[in-house]
Amino acid sequence: MFVALNWPADVTKRAASPAAKFGADGPVVWETWKNARGEVFRSDGKDPGDWLDLPAVVASRNAADVDPRPLQQIARDNQLGIFQPAFDPLAAINQINETRLNKEAYEFVRSKTLYNRDGQNALAKAGELTISFPLPAKEIKAQWRVISEADKPRYHWTTLRQGNTTIIFGLTALHITTKDLPNWFWATFEHVDNPTRPGNEPWMLESRDSFACPAAPYNCNLAPSGIGLQGTKWAFFRLRGTQTDFVDSRGNITLLANSQPEGGFQKSSSCITCHARATIGASGNDRLQVFMPNGESANGPPDSNWFVTKDANGKSILRYTQLDFVWSLFRAQPKQ
Q1: pTM score, two decimals?
Q2: Which of 246, 264, 291, 306 has its CA 20 to 30 A from that of 148?
Q3: Residue 185's domain spans which residues?
Q4: How many domains does the chain contain in total?
């Protein structure tokens, strides 16, 4: 899957380019997917249109189309009351972040009118307990950091246009989620430079990659051989781990963290449990908070009381409709 999604793309078809060589510069498959910011969830709440509609896929980014920080970091600061300076579009940007949905996920969002708050509120007010994305649905979250011209051979890179300035960014973190399993399949990758990158946290959880590291404890810090990574920029990425369930076969809580988006709470991070809290309130508008009151990630099995409570007579009352682990739906705006 890592190779397939990072294969060079035919940007006109928003698909893989069979004639391209793996590791070539330029947009890869997931970069042709629809950007959650603006392309899926418009500021006016209107239908974002057909999959192949404009805007066209371009190799460079605009500052207005990316997030200056991982949204979970912003949500955590807001929840803990940590002051955040107002975003200055003219200030120097040292990282960019984006979330993208593949065609099947995008078309499901359109078919259920989940691209605006009105559609999500209607779903909740109708008493729906949950929604279910189709099996081929996929979503990625990517984090990029500023790199130098000399760094480019070791990175998948892009550029960002900020006024009259063009800045080079290297891909440093990549979350991949797929609906192959009922609770989704979760995988996270980091560039090998991340633990020593200035301003970045070290890796607080050991990597687990039994494909690259055949002997326990599976944290050999190597790229897997035999799948075409050697000699390419992708050999500098490491699988930090995967997640398929809230607990293992013995009931131990599973954790998964990426040092960039989960910086500050790596040791409590569970992608699957955090995303289980992606919801819309039964009365409309409100959602479960991303984090627990202490600013740590929820982990382990979800609490059924998050979603349904009981009245004095024991009757179940819906509190929140679960949005099938897709936090990006919170970006939806009211229809204008």
Answers
A1: 0.92
A2: 264
A3: 2-331
A4: 1
